[in-house]
Structure formats: structure tokens, C-alpha cells
């Protein structure tokens, strides 16, 4: 606490010194309130965000709420006290955060909900498009297996994100179900996205349909791992399986040919997008005028918000070089155990 | 000496430790009812060799944990941390085996398993010291453990999924090659039956020498029952073929791991002073103390045993998934507690059996698998398992004649 | 004759409250010493220290003239000090034989484990219990389903089987009917005849005068006085218990009220 107050005092001093200068990007201070910076991926987001801001000469100040609603509220108060021009928030709890959001907006500081949606009018939303994730999964699976018996291994039933993904999957496959090309022979939610649960569900579905499965729509790479383990134990490994996240284990499976696709979300790109939107809003650009801005109203409450959504990258056997070139994975990890039918990225 | 003072335990007495245990038998009855019901509802799938093979493999992890949980519950404690400890130990094994040690070294997987088991024991001891020596309630200590070791599971590899494991290590998971095969399965069956028969004869002879009115009939019946069930089990496992072949799989390795755990734990609880002390502590800890039983050390050892079993379960789980993930084992503590309680462990302490816990785990997994076979959703499964848990405990209460 | 037990200046406090303060007590072979006093007078605490269940704060205890630490029940057992606790110290979920041998099972050591010889233990249990109470036949029944008398029998059987030289009996007849109380009285006389020293904690003045050779009265953790049974009347003993007044024929202790 003590350290933070000294810091904010110093920041306040430096800010007041700059106050008289004209409003250039170089004078912009961007605040970022992390929900839980301990999680691996946010460090990657931050590197993209920082890079995007540094190129424009803007300053980034961050605070980590360490999985606490109370701390996130006081973090945001602190950031506002430091006089940030725009505030990015990864909400720990998208409802509990709303009073803090209201305070920021009341002070005229634009608020950007980063990756986790905050359904509140006037909040700008920057995220990977979760519906697109589902579309990518279904699209690639249909490409590999246009007709036949499909199984859907859904995410956690209590996670809104899993429902978004399912929406995207359905958009692609529902017409094919209607015209009889695809039959859903089994579908199960995966409690807590836990791979072990996905494995058990897949094993039991395989028993129920006596192995007559042509493709599996798994909602992320973890559940895909469970699915592939279940398929392997009955000698069915190699049929089309989807995923998302670009887990190292999943990319290796794609190289080995036991998984078909992963929807890869390069967090650095999202960080750069966040930086771009933040700078625009700080400069006073109207939200709807930001390049690529769309209206997002697919949340549970149906609130219409301006948003910039980033399409995840489709990663398949053909373009594995993309993740290697982006330094997301080493060639060694990607190609571990790959012998026959090696992807181009492994040569 | 009169022989009537040493009459054989009557079958109507549910808590006797010899002969047939009425509680466990009634649980087996429940299991049979569930199996037959699902068999018809699923159009003949449930009792197929394939589903039974899967069921055994899927049950093994919860059953291993439930064996330890039974001991914990018998001492009137609880362990909420087992799922997290399993996840943490699994991640440490994965990290060492996949990232740290050379992948192709023959000593790699045995060493990582040994380290995992050591770590499990250490975590168990950590909980045990807080509970037995600092006097902090086990609910609180292991609730802390649940958070600590789930967090630690994440920290080990920063949430990354680690794969793949050594091919030999993977056999512990009972995948495509993770079974004994037909011949060795029968051989193992024969060895175990001979040892069991010899053991019964030795016990019988000793009882005769001491002038007990030893009951040949009960022993023979019991032997025959075990023989028939075990033979049916081996035959079933052998009749599930490897894909696109006529090679029978045989007993899956996870089932062997579980069998070893069960035999060892049955031995400990029935025949050793340590087992006796566990029950005495649960029955009346003050009496145990006044009779000179080292109550604290015993509780500590129970938690160490629980930690070791978590590590063994972690090996099976990670080998089965062929990956270490930070969410592995989430919510498993609830299944383990439910299995132990359905199996007759009393939360007020002093009562519970290893065999009951295994049957409890089988009941839970049968409901899980059976409901997927008939296309029920996960929410419907939760409702069903919750109801069975309550009904089983109610039935148990009436069977045991408690008020 | 050498005393079996000599307790000298024994004290014990719980959180600043003196439960037992500077107590001296002796016990000779074949002697029954009644320890009397109100609830909370310190008699149970004193006896639990002798049984190894509580550690004393200060003072010495000599067993057969040798100083004894008495830091655990096991140590007391090794010295031949057995206790029949008021609660009987039975695990209700275990049967008679398991309770009789609780903490002292007959076992073979195999590696880290001690494998119990259940047959042997049941054999011994049957013998000793049969000798005490021939009608006690349900040896395989958990203790929770036994009568008060049967439970008492198990606790007594422990002391007999392990050949107590000093026996502490804490309210042994409190939960018993008249017939069973008479049996306990008989037993005490038998044990006494074998040269076993007995501490008898009791509320029942009739029992005390019937069975004890000597009595020690405690009040507020201190000894009011001790006397040979024949030197004092029941009224005088009641006066010691209630008022802390030591009669002329008794030997006063530190807790005796000084008469004005």
C-alpha cells in the first residue's frame, strides 16, 4: 500500500509537469488493470500492448488485482488518481467491476474491456472473437470430413465463453445437419474444461456408437487432448479433431496428424490492437469511428457496445510455420516424434 | 475353553470384519441393479466387455483416492485437497519427465514416478503435521491445500500443457497397449487364487490349533465367490479385443495398480496394529490416547498414505491422458469423498472399509458412464449421483441399525 | 514394607488454574487407598498423572523406589500401572478382544508393520473375560452394543491380563447395578489379596468404608488429610470433603483448614 501511494504521488508530479504540453501521443498515459497477471498469457498480451504504445511514445502503467475484486477496485482508483488518459481492464469479475467502470467514465476516462467482456454501455470491447473460434473449428473439420458422424465435446457449461464457441460451431454445421450431410452422434459438456472429463466422456460416447465416429468438434486444445487419448485407445487416432489456444501439445498433435486444427490466438496481436484502440480513444476519436469497429451485442444481456474483435488464426498441418515464425513454439517442440507425413514446418 | 464363546461372526452383523460383510454386499447389489438397468436402457451396451473394460480403467483413479479417503474419514478427518495434490504431483512428474530429464533415458520415467511418490508423501506429511500436531481442523488445512496445490500445479509449468510422456510410462494409463494380455492375465489370476487359498488354509490351521470352532463352510463359500468373480472379470477383460484384431486386451494396468493398492490397504487395515489404531482413533480418540496409542503419529501417517495414493493416482491419470495439465484432477476430491461415503465410511469416524470404497467408486463411475451411454447430459448425471449418494447413506444407516 | 508408589510434591496447572497442588500420596502392596473429594477436587487429575495420561508440572513419583517420568500411558503400563478410567476408555466400534489389547496388541513385526495375531488375542481375551464373567459370550460384538457391566468387564480384564501391580479405579461402580457393584467389590478384595495396590476413586461413602484400608481427601487440588479407615467416621470424612476440616485422628495435609 505504502509503495503504491508513493508511486502514484511521483506519477502525479510528472503528470502535472507535462500538463501544459500539447496533446500528442507522446503525452498519453495508458492504464491497464490486470485481473490476475500470474497467468502466463497476460505477460504475452503485455508485450504486444507495450510494443504498440512505445512505438507511439505513450506510457503504460499497470496494476495487478491478483484475483481479487476489492484489489481491482482500488487498483482502478489508483490508476485514475495517477491521471491515466484511458483505462484497459481485464475484469476479474465482469459484474463487480461495474462501479469502478462508472467512476472512470464519470471522470471522462474511456474504458476498454480487454478480452473479458464488461457489459456496460459506453465500454469499448477488445477481444478475440470467440464465435469466430467456433467457426474456425467447424470450418476446418468440415473441410477435412464434409460428411459423416460428428461428436461435439463442449466446454464448461458454466462458462459464457464456451457458449460463444458453440454458437460459432453451430453456425457452420447446422445447415449441414439440416441437409443430412452431418449427424451428431454424441455431445457432452466438459465440466471445468478438464481434459480428464473430456476423455471419459469421449470413451463412453465411443462405446455408445461402437466407434462409428468420423470427426470430433472439441472446444479447446485441452479437451482435444482428452479426445485424442480416448481415440488412441481404440485405434481411431487420426480422425479430424478440432481445438483452440495453440497449446504446445496441440500443435505437436497437429504436426503428428492426430489433431486437425487449432484456433490460435496470438495474444501479442491482441495487445497491439488494445494499444491502437487506447491511443485512438485517448486522442478523442469517437468509438464508432475507430478503424475496424463493430457493434457487439452477443453478450448475455444483449447490450450493444462498440468493439474491435480480432479473428483468431487458423492453424492446420499446412501452415504450422506461422507459429514457428512467430516464435510461439520451437521447431523442436513442434516436431517432437514426427516421422512420417511431416509438415513443411518440420523440414 | 468353550467353543461357543468363539462362534463365527453372524452374517446379520454388518460391522464384523470377517466372513461376508453385509454392507459391502448390499452395495454390490446396488451396483448390479444400476448395471442391469443401464444395460437395458442402453440397448445392451453397458455390460459389454468393452464398456466394462473402460469402466474399470475410468474407476481406478477415484477408487485409489477413495481407499485413502476412507482411512482419513475413519479417523474422523477429511481431505479436500486430493484433486489438487494429484494435479500438482502430475505436473511435477510431467515437467521432470518431459522438460528436465533427457527424454530417451531409460531411468527417466522410473525416477520421475519415484520423485512423484516422494512429493506426494511430503505433501501428505505437511497436511498431517498441521492437523495432528498443530491441531488445525483437517477441513481447514486441506481446504488450504486445495488452493495451494492447485495454484502450485499452475506454477509448475505456468499453466502449459506438457506432452508427450515416455511410451513405457503411458502403460500405467491402460491405453491401447496398457493391458496385460490374455495369457499373463490368466497366469496372474492363477497365482493370486493359489496364494489366497494357501492363506486361508494357514489361517484355518492356526485357528484349529488354538481350539477355535473354525468354519470351513464360510471360508469355502468365500473362496468360491472370489474365484468365480475374479474368473469372470479376467474372461471379460480378455474378450475385449485390440482394435481391428482378435488379440484380447486382458487386465488393464490401471486395474492392476488399483488391485495392488486395495490388497495392500486391506492388509494394513485388517491385520496390522496401524490399521487397528486408525479405527480406534475414529471410534474414540480419547480412549486410544489413554491406552497408549500414538494418536498424532497415526493421523500423520494416514495423511502421508493419502499423499502417496494421490501420487499413484496422478501417475495413472497423466499416463492415461498422455499429458500433464494444470486442471488435472479438479473436483476429484468430491468424487473420492462420495465414493468413500457411499462405500460405508462414516463421517462421524470409526467406520469404513476399503472394499466398500472401491464399490462406491464403481457405483459413481457406472452412473457417469451409463448416463453418457444413454445420452444424458452432465447436469443430469450430477443430479443422479447426488441422489444415489444420499440414498446409499440412508440405506446404510438403516442397515447398521443406527438411530 | 517398601511402598509401591510414592508421590511427592506433585502439581499440575491448566491455564493458570491449579488442578493439583503439592500432593504427597503413598500406596503399599495389597493396600486399597480411597481418593475422595468433590468434582474438581483434583483426584482424577492426580490419578491421570500416575497413569501417564497427563504430565505433571512439578514433583517426583517413585515406583518401587525408582523415579519414574510417566510421560505416556505406555510408560505407566511398562511399570505395571493399570487404570480403569471412569469412561472405561473403550473404542465403541471395536470388539472386546480388540479393546482389551488396544495399544498393546500381540503382533509380529514384519518390516515397518506389526501384524496382529488376532487368534491369539481372542484366545487370551476369552480366557480372562470368561474368568471374570462367564455369561459374557458375545466377544465379537462391537462395544457399543454391550451392557454397562460387560463394558466394565473389558476394562477390568485389561488390568488382569496385563498383570497390574498398581491399579487405579476411577469410579468403577458409578454406572453399575447392585449385583455388578458387589462383583467389583469382590474383585477388589481378590486383587488386594494378591498384593496389588489399588487407588480407588469413589463418591460412594459406603463403598469406601467397605473396601478401602486408608483414605486421602482432596479439596481444591490439595490434600486435606489422610487417615486409616478405622480411625475416622463417615461424618468426619464428609467434614473433610465438604469443609476441608481435618479431624484429630487424621494426618493433616497442606489443604487442611486451620481451625480457629
Automatic annotation (TrEMBL), chain B:
- Where do the TM regions start and end? 27-49, 55-74, 81-100, 106-123, 130-152, 172-199, 220-241, 247-268, 299-319, 331-347, 382-399
Q: Which GO MF terms does the UniProt record name?
A: transmembrane transporter activity
Task: Supply one GO CC term from the record.
Answer: plasma membrane
The membrane topology term of the UniProt record is:
Multi-pass membrane protein
Q: Which UniProt keywords apply?
A: Cell inner membrane, Cell membrane, Membrane, Sugar transport, Transmembrane, Transmembrane helix, Transport
Location relative to the cell: Cell membrane
The record's Pfam families line, in alphabetical order, gives: BPD_transp_2
Q: What does this protein do?
A: Part of the binding-protein-dependent transport system for D-xylose. Probably responsible for the translocation of the substrate across the membrane.
Q: What PANTHER family is this protein classified in?
A: ABC TRANSPORTER PERMEASE PROTEIN YPHD-RELATED-RELATED, XYLOSE TRANSPORT SYSTEM PERMEASE PROTEIN XYLH
Q: What is this protein called?
A: Xylose transport system permease protein XylH
Q: Which organism is it from?
A: Halocynthiibacter halioticoli
Taxonomy of origin reads: Bacteria, Pseudomonadati, Pseudomonadota, Alphaproteobacteria, Rhodobacterales
From TrEMBL, chain C:
> Where is the ABC transporter domain positioned along the sequence?
5-245
The record's InterPro entries line, in alphabetical order, gives: AAA+_ATPase (IPR003593), ABC_carbohydrate_import_ATPase (IPR050107), ABC_transporter-like_ATP-bd (IPR003439), P-loop_NTPase (IPR027417)
Q: Can the keyword ATP-binding be found in this entry's annotation? A: yes
List GO molecular-function terms, semicolon-separated.
ATP binding; ATP hydrolysis activity
Keyword annotations for this protein, in alphabetical order, are: ATP-binding, Nucleotide-binding, Repeat, Sugar transport, Transport
Keyword ATP-binding present in the record's keywords: the answer is yes
Q: What is this protein called?
A: ATP-binding cassette domain-containing protein
This protein's species is Halocynthiibacter halioticoli
